[in-house]
Design brief:
heterodimer; A: mainly beta; Thrombin, subunit H; four-stranded antiparallel sheet; 32 strands; B: mainly alpha; Cytochrome Bc1 Complex, Chain D, domain 2; 5 helices; 61% helix; globular
C-alpha cells in the first residue's frame, strides 16, 4: 500500500514538473503580435502552425500603435496613442508593466544594447527614454525647435553606437541623441532639413537616416558615419509640376524596401513607387501602382516588394517583381489592408484586413492563402525577428 | 379607401427619400462613422483626441464655425496634410460628420 502511495506521489510530482516545464520549453523565434487597434488588445501568434496563442487585453488606445522587441525576444514594448508604453511577455501572454508616459505618442525604438526604450511623442512633443527592464524614466528630451516651438516628433529609430535619431515634424529638424556616454544624451541637431518631415527610416546597416518630407517633394538624408557633412536632399522635386492627389493616408517609411542596391519608396500623393539607387541616391525608376502606396516592403530575400494603398483604394495588395520592376500579382483580400509582415526568411506574409476583422497568411511564392485568423480591427503585425534588426 | 395604407406608405417613402438627399441614409451613417473613426483616426486618433492632426473632440470644436469646418473637410487645409475629401463625401455628408463630431462621434 505504502509503495503504491509512494509511486503515485512520485508520478504526481513528475506530472507537475512536466507541466511546469511545459510552459517554458518554447522558443520565441516564431512568435509575433497583432495589434487590435480598436479594442486595445493584442493577439500573440506563432507562425509555424499559424495559430493564435493568447489575447492580451488592457493596452489602451492603440490607433497607430507600433512595437519593438527586447533582444531576447521575450518582451514586446507597445507604443499606444494614449501615451501608454506597455511591456508584454509574449511567452506568457501577459502585460508585465505599463506606464502612461505622455499625452499622445506615435512610435518608439529600442537601443542597440537593448537597455533603453525610447518613445516619440506628439504631445508634449519630444522623446522620452526608459529603462527597458523597469520602464523607469531615464531621459526626457523636449523637442524645442530653432524658433523655440515645441514640435511633434516622428521617425524615431535606433542607430548603432547607442543612438536614437528622430525628426521634428513642425520644426523641420533631425536630431541625434547619443547615449553611449551614459544616461545624459549628447544631442546633435540638423536644422532646416525640409518642410514637414512625416516619417523616417534607417538603412539596415544603420548608416543612413532618411526623413520623408510631406511639405515638399523630396527626402532628407543623413550619413551617420559622417554626421559632420550634415543632411542633404535626395529625390528633390520628384513630382515637380505634376498635380498631387489628395493624400488620405500618410505613407510609412518604416519597413521600407531594399533590394540589392535599390531602395523602393512610396511616392507621396502619387500612384507610384519610386526606385532609388543607394550608391548614387538618384532616382532610377518609377513603378506605376494601383493607388497611393502606404507600406512598401521587401520580402527578406529582396526578390519581391509588396505594396498596400491609401483609402479609398485600400482593398488591394500588389506584388512587384524586383528584377523586372513589374507588378506580378494583385490580391483583393478585403477592405482596409493596413499592414504586411514577412516571416524572417520570407516564405509567409501576414496581412491585416481591418474591416474584415481578419488577418490572412499567404505563401509568398504561390500566393496561396495558408491561414485566416480572426482579429478585431487588426492593424500592425510585429514578429519577434524585429528584435535583431536595426531600425525596427 | 382600401388604398389608404398604400398611399400613406408612398407618402412616407417620398418624405424619407427627400430627406436622404440632404442627410446620409442610416446605412451610410454607419459607414461614415466607421470611416471617420478608422481612417480620419489615422491622423486624428481613434478617440478623435488628435495626433498628427488636431483634436476633433466636442470640447475642442466648441465655438468653431460649422460651415468653416465643413469647408475644411471638403477642401482640405492648404500646406498641411489635411486632404480635400470632396471626392469622397457629399456636402450633406460632410455637414452630418461635423454635426456628429460636435456632439461626440457615435460608437
Amino acid at each position: 500500500m505504502k509503495g503504491i502511495i509512494k509511486s503515485s506521489f512520485i508520478a504526481l510530482i513528475a506530472v507537475a514538473v512536466m507541466s511546469l516545464s511545459g510552459c517554458v520549453t518554447r522558443g520565441t523565434g516564431d512568435l509575433g503580435i497583432i495589434v487590435e487597434r480598436a479594442s486595445g488588445s493584442l493577439k500573440v501568434i506563432e507562425t509555424t502552425g499559424q495559430t493564435e496563442l493568447y489575447t492580451v487585453q488592457g493596452l489602451g488606445d492603440l490607433s497607430h500603435a507600433s512595437a519593438v522587441y527586447s533582444r531576447d525576444e521575450q518582451f514586446a514594448y507597445i507604443f499606444g496613442r494614449d501615451g501608454g508604453l506597455t511591456k508584454v511577455d509574449v511567452l506568457a501572454g501577459k502585460i508585465v508593466n505599463r506606464v502612461i508616459q505622455g499625452g499622445n505618442s506615435i512610435g518608439g525604438a529600442i537601443s542597440q544594447d537593448g537597455r533603453l526604450v525610447a518613445v516619440s511623442n506628439y504631445k508634449p512633443g519630444g522623446v522620452k527614454v526608459f529603462d527597458s527592464k523597469t520602464l523607469e524614466l531615464v531621459a526626457d528630451i523636449p523637442a524645442i525647435d530653432a524658433d523655440g516651438v515645441r514640435s511633434k516628433v516622428i521617425g524615431l529609430v535606433d542607430a548603432p553606437g547607442q543612438k536614437f535619431v528622430f525628426s521634428l515634424y513642425d520644426g523641420g529638424e533631425t536630431w541625434i541623441a547619443d547615449f553611449s556616454k551614459g544616461n545624459q544624451p549628447k544631442i546633435t541637431k540638423f536644422k532646416n532639413i525640409g518642410k514637414l518631415p512625416y516619417d523616417g527610416l534607417i538603412t539596415d546597416d544603420g548608416r543612413y537616416y532618411i526623413a520623408g518630407l510631406f511639405g515638399e517633394d523630396g527626402l532628407a538624408k543623413l550619413d551617420l558615419w559622417h554626421p559632420e557633412k550634415g543632411m542633404s536632399r535626395i529625390l528633390d522635386g520628384y513630382g515637380k509640376g505634376e498635380k498631387k492627389l489628395p493624400v488620405y493616408k500618410m505613407p510609412h517609411l518604416e519597413g521600407w524596401a531594399k533590394a540589392g542596391d535599390q531602395l523602393f519608396l512610396p511616392a507621396v500623393g502619387r500612384h507610384e513607387v519610386l526606385i532609388v539607387d543607394q550608391r548614387t541616391w538618384k532616382e532610377v525608376g518609377r513603378i506605376p501602382v494601383y493607388g497611393q502606396p502606404v507600406f512598401v516592403v521587401a520580402r527578406p530575400d529582396g526578390r519581391q516588394v509588396w505594396v498596400n494603398f491609401a483609402y479609398p483604394l485600400n482593398d488591394t495588395l500588389q506584388v512587384i517583381d524586383v528584377p523586372s520592376q513589374k507588378v506580378i500579382h494583385e490580391f483583393k483580400p478585403g477592405k482596409a489592408i493596413l499592414h504586411m509582415e514577412f516571416t524572417p526568411r520570407g516564405e509567409q506574409v501576414w496581412v491585416s484586413v481591418r474591416d474584415a476583422d481578419r488577418v490572412d497568411v499567404y505563401d509568398t511564392e504561390t500566393f496561396k492563402k495558408l491561414a485566416e485568423l480572426e482579429a478585431k480591427k487588426p492593424s500592425g503585425i510585429f514578429l519577434t525577428a524585429r528584435a535583431h534588426r536595426t531600425g525596427l | 379607401m382600401r388604398n389608404l395604407p398604400i398611399i400613406l406608405a408612398l407618402a412616407l417613402f417620398a418624405t424619407s427619400s427627400l430627406a436622404a438627399a440632404e442627410k446620409p441614409s442610416v446605412q451610410r451613417q454607419g459607414e461614415l462613422v466607421n470611416l471617420v473613426r478608422q481612417d480620419c483616426g489615422s491622423c486624428h486618433g481613434l478617440t478623435m483626441k488628435g495626433g498628427l492632426g488636431s483634436s476633433l473632440l466636442p470640447k475642442d470644436l466648441e465655438g468653431k464655425d460649422s460651415e468653416t469646418l465643413v469647408e475644411i473637410v471638403l477642401d482640405g487645409l492648404h500646406e498641411t496634410p489635411m486632404p480635400p475629401w470632396r471626392a469622397q463625401f457629399a456636402e450633406g455628408e460632410a455637414e452630418w460628420i461635423i454635426e456628429q463630431l460636435k456632439k461626440g462621434l457615435p460608437e
